[in-house]
Amino acid sequence: MRLLVVEDDPDLGIGICLGLTRKGYAVDHAKDGYEALDMLEETDYDLVILDLSLPYLNGWEVLENIRKYNLELRVLILSAKSFVDDKIKGLDMGANDYLTKPFDFSELEARIRNLLRQKISLEKSELVYESLSLDTLKRTVEVNKMPINLTRKEFGILEYLMKSPEEVFSAEKIIEHVWNRDVDLFSTTFKYHIYSLRKKIAEKDNETAKLIQTIHGVGYKLSNK
């Protein structure tokens, strides 16, 4: 899951990003409203954590811009504005949740999990392709009904491919969804995760592992052809 934290306080923003990264999320950090809109235009996020008191373009304006073009993106307002009127305004403008500062990180994480569950429930939680099955809610993967244990990155790669079988994705596109922006696209990390994912699937069924295909010079796809 790819998250965007929009927070102008550098210490708080970095702290939230580090905490969520440790929980397995891919997290980017925007420090003002204009940067947030630029990043939202370039990247597909699953959820935005949005401060309201931002420089240049405040959080209300960012939220308004988001809802003009995207009604599905989950938005959690995280703000020191604790008046009931502010909470009502935020929810009426299209925010999915509102948490006031100061806050407990475990509560923030719980609210994020809840919003992402809501998003998944509107989609299809169980993805099936040939002998592969993946449950986005339970975070489980099976090959021919046999469970396999994947890392968060391996799970993210497989989930991304299974959502659009037969479609070819570049390594950059997959990385954009599963990793943070600062990942080294030229490192061997991504190829290692692909190798490890195939290896774990092959331990259950070698033919199933072949479904993850490399299209040389282009990218990767999930296909039985």
From TrEMBL:
<keyword id="KW-0597">Phosphoprotein</keyword>
<feature type="domain" description="OmpR/PhoB-type">
    <location>
        <begin position="124"/>
        <end position="224"/>
    </location>
</feature>
<dbReference type="GO" id="GO:0000976">
    <property type="term" value="F:transcription cis-regulatory region binding"/>
</dbReference>
<dbReference type="GO" id="GO:0006355">
    <property type="term" value="P:regulation of DNA-templated transcription"/>
</dbReference>
<dbReference type="InterPro" id="IPR011006">
    <property type="entry name" value="CheY-like_superfamily"/>
</dbReference>
<protein>
    <recommendedName>
        <fullName>DNA-binding response regulator</fullName>
    </recommendedName>
</protein>
<dbReference type="InterPro" id="IPR039420">
    <property type="entry name" value="WalR-like"/>
</dbReference>
<dbReference type="InterPro" id="IPR036388">
    <property type="entry name" value="WH-like_DNA-bd_sf"/>
</dbReference>
<dbReference type="InterPro" id="IPR001867">
    <property type="entry name" value="OmpR/PhoB-type_DNA-bd"/>
</dbReference>
<feature type="domain" description="Response regulatory">
    <location>
        <begin position="2"/>
        <end position="116"/>
    </location>
</feature>
<dbReference type="Pfam" id="PF00486">
    <property type="entry name" value="Trans_reg_C"/>
</dbReference>
<dbReference type="Pfam" id="PF00072">
    <property type="entry name" value="Response_reg"/>
</dbReference>
<dbReference type="InterPro" id="IPR001789">
    <property type="entry name" value="Sig_transdc_resp-reg_receiver"/>
</dbReference>
<feature type="DNA-binding region" description="OmpR/PhoB-type">
    <location>
        <begin position="124"/>
        <end position="224"/>
    </location>
</feature>
<keyword id="KW-0805">Transcription regulation</keyword>
<dbReference type="GO" id="GO:0032993">
    <property type="term" value="C:protein-DNA complex"/>
</dbReference>
<keyword id="KW-0804">Transcription</keyword>
<keyword id="KW-0238">DNA-binding</keyword>
<dbReference type="GO" id="GO:0005829">
    <property type="term" value="C:cytosol"/>
</dbReference>
<keyword id="KW-0902">Two-component regulatory system</keyword>
<feature type="modified residue" description="4-aspartylphosphate">
    <location>
        <position position="51"/>
    </location>
</feature>
<dbReference type="GO" id="GO:0000156">
    <property type="term" value="F:phosphorelay response regulator activity"/>
</dbReference>
